[in-house]
Design goal:
Layout lengths: L10 E2 L12 E6 L3 H4 L3 H13 L3 E6 L11 E5 L5 H11 L14 E5 L1 H5 L10 E3 L3 H15 L3 H8 L5 E2 L23 E2 L8 E5 L1 E2 L10 H4 L4 E2 L2 H14 L6 E5 L9 H10 L3 E4 L9 H9 L4 E7 L3 H6 L6 H13 L4 E8 L6 H17 L4 E8 L16 H18 L2 E4 L4 H9 L3 H12 L4 H7 L20 H4 L4 H12 L1
Parallel strand pairs: 2-3, 2-4, 4-5, 5-6, 9-12, 12-13, 14-15, 15-16, 16-17
Antiparallel strand pairs: 1-8, 6-7, 10-11
Iron/sulfur cluster (SF4) binds next to helix 7.
Length: 506
């Protein structure tokens, strides 16, 4: 095992070859806490790839964790959330690494991949030496090999990597086709179990990638296409191996998917877990996939709380945004699941949708009342997030509503919840604007992140000092201009996205 710094309570599910003498030190870094990083399959993938290559000494590095302070030769970040860009810079500073790429000509290499890089890598251009866009299973081994062979020699790395699909070398080679979709046999799973994650001691298995849906605000279908599912045999092999290696303590199996019940072998996967005496954890389900058989499998697995994502209480809004599920679909799913013993529902919904008005509020109140009735006896809670326009989706062009309109949208959802006797938890109200500024940003946003993380200035001041108008997110963009990420990935899908955007506004 190459990482001797085991954290308390961890169980390793894989053995890794020891690196050769004098191997470079690579940090598998996650720009947030240990708890968040160890809950992220992208991070497990990066760690496992580095350790499994046998080419590096590997340590993990998390935000605020004093460990992982050796003088690294390369830092490999997995970035899942836009605001973690600021944390990424903070980690570099804490490691004594110059965060601006142009000033770091021969020091440690900064490498990043993950959903944020796959949607809009441009804010990372002033910071990273190498970026991997799209599915990393193809690009990461090639990047690791080049880094192990060439060390910090930027021009040798450029020679090795400039033609690799999905690889971007800021300042040298800044456009690429996103990496090709990988075989579902290679989908990710936890390689370390730990009690200190969002999913304690749970083996997370990515049972599918992409989504059969096509919601106008969601990156799942734009950056991971097409929808693919892990074969049942591969799934069974993985859980058998995890159970064998994890020792006497029980293992829980979490099915990671945008649409777990859309997997054609969903019921058999649930049965396979149950047959091994393990417990099941489920991510959010699509109501449209729930039928009597799948509801039965969920109930039999002892799952008592389920998350669904209607996004809007207005059926017409939902359909306009490409969420092809009627109100009735949700009510039917609620009844089926309650009959099988489910006693709690989390409904993920969005504030600040395009074209919200009083009819949306009235429809939401009716929908929540009807859902509450269909789920009689169960606890229903709305988890409300603010809609953030994301790159490479139809809503990339959308003007994000201002603070006041978002406040009104949240208030009307609270009123609807009260009227329907449903609980509500509001998340991300304050951070959504920053998320949008980074998600839709240019190189200047990356430079502002460095200015801010170095200290002595506020985030808004740092943006302004780099020439970024913080209010630009509230204007429509890109209809007549090339967007930052289109310079990287091309604008081939622009007509389709624009057509869907206009349809969403109708
Ligand atoms: S169903 Fe969910 S994951 Fe799939 S496209 Fe819609 S919002 Fe995204």
């Amino acid at each position: 095992m190459t990482d001797s710094r085991k954290y308390t309570g961890e169980r390793f599910l894989q053995n890794y070859p020891g690196p050769g003498a004098g191997a470079p030190l690579a940090l598998a870094a996650y720009p947030n806490s240990y708890k968040t990083g160890m809950s992220n399959l992208g991070f497990h993938f990066v760690y496992s790839s580095l350790a499994g290559s046998g080419r590096f000494r590997v340590e993990r590095k998390f935000l605020g964790d004093p460990r992982g302070k050796g003088s690294a030769d390369a830092v490999f970040f997995s970035v899942s959330y836009e605001e973690d860009l600021l944390n990424l810079v903070k980690i570099l500073i804490s490691l004594g690494i110059e965060p601006l790429r142009e000033r770091r000509t021969d020091g440690p290499l900064v490498i990043a991949g993950g959903p944020v890089v796959s949607s809009n890598p441009v804010p990372l251009f002033p910071i990273a030496d190498i970026l991997a866009a799209g599915e990393g299973e193809g690009a990461l081994p090639v990047i690791m090999e080049a880094v192990a062979a060439e060390g910090p020699d930027r021009s040798a790395l450029a020679e090795s990597l400039s033609e690799v699909e999905g690889v971007i070398l800021p300042g040298l080679s800044e456009s690429t086709a996103a990496a090709s979709p990988v075989d579902p046999e290679l989908f990710q799973h936890s390689v370390i179990l730990t009690p200190d994650t969002v999913f304690p001691d749970m083996l997370l298995v990515e049972i599918s990638r992409g989504c059969p849906g096509a919601c106008a605000f969601c990156m799942a279908t734009s950056i991971y296409r097409p929808f693919r599912t892990m074969p049942l045999e591969r799934f069974e092999t993985l859980i058998d191996s995890a159970i064998e290696r994890s020792g006497p303590d029980p293992v829980k199996v979490g099915l990671i998917s945008t649409a777990a019940a859309a997997h054609p072998e969903f019921t058999r996967m649930m049965e396979a877990i149950e047959a091994r005496g393990a417990k099941v954890g489920l991510s959010s389900l699509r109501a449209i996939d729930i039928d009597a058989e799948k509801a039965g499998a969920i109930g039999k697995a002892g799952i008592r709380s389920v998350s669904l994502a209607p996004e809007s209480g207005s059926e017409s809004m939902r359909l306009r945004l490409g969420k092809n599920a009627s109100d009735q679909t949700y009510l039917d799913a609620a009844r089926l699941l309650c009959r099988e013993g489910v006693t709690g529902f989390n409904l993920y919904m969005l504030a600040g949708m395009p074209g919200e008005d009083e009819r949306t509020s009235a429809a939401t109140e009716d929908f929540l009342s009807a859902f509450s009735e269909a789920a009689k006896g169960a606890r229903v809670t709305v988890n409300l997030n603010v809609l953030v326009p994301k790159p490479r989706t139809p809503l990339q062009f959308m003007a994000m509503p201002g603070r006041k309109e978002i406040g009104t949208s949240i208030d009307s959802m609270k009123t609807a919840c009260r009227a329907a006797g449903v609980g509500i938890s509001v998340k991300g109200q304050r951070s959504s604007m920053n998320q949008a500024r980074i998600a839709l940003g240019s190189e200047a946003v990356g430079r502002a992140a460095v200015r801010f993380a170095v200290g002595g200035t506020s985030w808004k001041r740092a943006l302004k000092d780099e020439g970024v108008d913080p209010d630009l997110i509230h204007a429509e963009r890109g209809v007549d201009e090339i967007l930052p990420w289109e310079k990287v990935f091309g604008s081939g899908r622009r007509d389709t996205l624009l057509r869907r955007y206009r349809a969403a506004l109708k």
